[in-house]
Design a protein that fits this description.
Largest sheet: 2 strands, antiparallel
Helix content: 55-70%
Order of helices and strands: HHHHEHHHHHE
Membrane topology: Multi-pass membrane protein
Number of helices: 9
Domain RDD: 8-166
Main location: membrane
Distance between the termini: 14 Å
Subcellular location: Cell membrane
Shape: globular
Keywords: Cell membrane, Membrane, Transmembrane, Transmembrane helix
Oligomer: single chain
Strand order of the largest sheet: 1-2
Length: 181
């Protein structure tokens, strides 16, 4: 028996949704950052600048931000398969067999995506202050596009993180429209 699955989302739709996701992620990261800084000040009584003066506190701050972003994505993907940007672009994350992906697949997908996307911002921040980091920052931009380049060559057009995790991003019908079979 053939299972009817929604069509895979197109490359451009996924790319534009990714950029929109990035814009929508900024307020999430800023909110977490404000809460981290506020909590730090309330617990220690130290100035906000104390976080940037300590390598350990900077590492903890980074870990808190990564955990928050992990929570945002995995909870959205597990609950309904969609983040706000995915809803806007009518996309949904499914398992390869259809339906919601399991938690392990979501963790693998997030880690695979983070390996490609995460180095870009810190490397550009370093390059901003020290031009010696500029080649590494440009390299991170190329690495950032690796999942999308992978999709051009993948036999099913899956992004790198979807291939690794056993997931796929599909188009959803507009509200009030039935899925064509």
């Amino acid at each position: 028996m053939q299972i009817d699955r929604p069509p895979l989302a197109g490359w451009w739709r996924r790319c534009f949704a990714w950029w929109y996701e990035l814009l929508l992620l900024i307020p999430v990261v800023l909110l977490v950052q404000v809460l981290y800084q506020l909590g730090f000040q309330l617990l220690t009584g130290a100035a906000v600048t104390a976080v940037s003066a300590s390598a350990g506190l900077r590492a903890l701050n980074f870990a808190v931000l990564v955990i928050a972003v992990f929570g945002y994505f995995t909870l959205c993907w597990r609950r309904g398969g969609q983040t706000l940007a995915m809803k806007t672009w009518r996309l949904r994350l499914d398992g390869l067999a259809g339906g919601r992906p399991a938690w392990p697949a979501l963790v693998v997908r997030f880690v695979a995506a983070a390996i490609c996307y995460l180095p870009c911002a810190p490397l550009w921040a370093l390059a901003w202050h020290d031009r010696a980091w500029l080649p590494w920052a440009w390299t991170s931009c190329a690495w950032l596009m690796a999942p999308f380049v992978w999709a051009w060559f993948d036999r099913e057009g899956l992004l790198l993180q979807d291939r690794v995790a056993g997931t796929r991003i599909v188009r959803t019908p507009p509200r009030g429209h039935a899925v064509k079979r």
